[in-house]
Each structure stands twice: as structure tokens, then as C-alpha cells.
Amino acid sequence: MSNNTANSVVLVHGGFVDGSGWDGVYQILKKDGYDVTIVQNPTTSLADDVAFTNRAIAEAKSNVILVGHSYGGIVVSEAGTDPKVAGVVYIAAFAGDAGESVATLIANPPPGASVPPILPPVDGFLMLDKDKFAASFAADVRPSLAAFMADSQVPWGIPALEGKVTAPAWKVKPSWYLVASDDKMIPPPAQRQMATRAGATTVEVPGSHAVYVSDPAAVAKLIEQAAAGVAKKRAA
């Protein structure tokens, strides 16, 4: 990893979960010498989550590879224009364009697509049906951990769901995208379309929406490829 100018990685989780799901990815990146920060974004509003992410970027020791999963893709699209961000990585994520939010991107699912088991809002927050969480979000995660994820859900604020990107990072920063081909939350065709639109270097792996938990090696590999790609571009 010598001569790597983007030595810091900032990991941003999505809706319904917290940063602990990044543990496997974190362990690999740390072992390989990266400085890693996991953002515990509150998922209350896009503005709040971007503010939490910006603080993590500011505290990073070097230029940053900014990584977002699911709704975290909206957060990193908005926060990733920070000058310290060298590249953006989307993991089964919403790569929103200007004026888009998770709400707009999921408004018209393709025919036959799985419908996430989101319960009606309570006090302005959304949750997934605990009984359907594993099948929809984490089908390839070991059952005991999937059950823990279901029971430790973080309520997802409607202002976060509806928060719109203003100027997407992928238009001005190199980007990478990991498509999870067995995803039941964001249809894989939608992931491929967003990756293509972003001009992202794209890999596809078998995996559920929680691919960052079930296959941390594949996720860490793409993040490290992004760091190496950024270093190469800077050296050229």
C-alpha cells in the first residue's frame, strides 16, 4: 500500500442498521494498513447524516475513500464532494442524482421486483417487519446475526428517506459500485442502472442486501481497488 495517497476509509451505513455491520470489512482494511472510520449516522435526516459524515472526513488522517451502503449511498453522494474525498464507493447503494432521494428512486419498482417489508411509519420513523427482515435484508447472513440485526433495528426517519441529493459526488469524483445480485431490497437491475449512470467501475457478486456483512472480503477488495485506482490517477 506504499505511495497510496487515499489511506483513509470512511464507511457509511444505511437505513435500519448501525455501523456495527461494517466490522468484517473494518477488520480486513485495518489489517491491510488503512485508517478506517465508521460513521454512526443517526438516519434522522439527510442533513444530519451528511453532517456526521463530514465530521468523519474532516478527522481522517489523509485523503478519503468514502463508502456508502444502501441509503448511505445518498449520504456519500451528497458528502463526497468534500475536497478531501478522493473516490466514492457504493455497496448495493442508492447512487442518487441531483434532486433524487431514496423515496423518488423506489417510487416505481420494476415489474416483479421484491417489495421491502417496510411497516407503516410511526412518529415519522420507518422500520422493517422483524419477521421478514432476514429474508429481505440479510438472507445470506448467519441466522443468529440476521435475527440480531432485525431486533436491533434503528428507526429510519422519513426526512432521511426523502432527503434529496443536490450535487452528486459521482459526477466529479471517480466512483466504484458493488452490485449484490441476490438483493431483495434494491433490485439488482436498479443497482446496475445507477452504477452505469455514475460511470462507476462495477463488480457484481452473489449476495443479499447485507453483502457487506456476509461477504466482507469482496467489499474490502473493491474499496482497496478504489484506493489503488485513486493513487494511480494521482501518480499519472
Automatic annotation (TrEMBL):
InterPro entries in alphabetical order: AB_hydrolase_1, AB_hydrolase_fold, Sec-Metab_Biosynth_Hydrolase
Domain of life of the native organism: Bacteria
UniProtKB keywords: Hydrolase
Taxonomic source organism: Mesorhizobium neociceri
Stretches assigned to the AB hydrolase-1 domain: 9-221
Protein name (database record): Alpha/beta hydrolase
GO molecular function, one term: hydrolase activity
Pfam families reported for this sequence: Abhydrolase_6
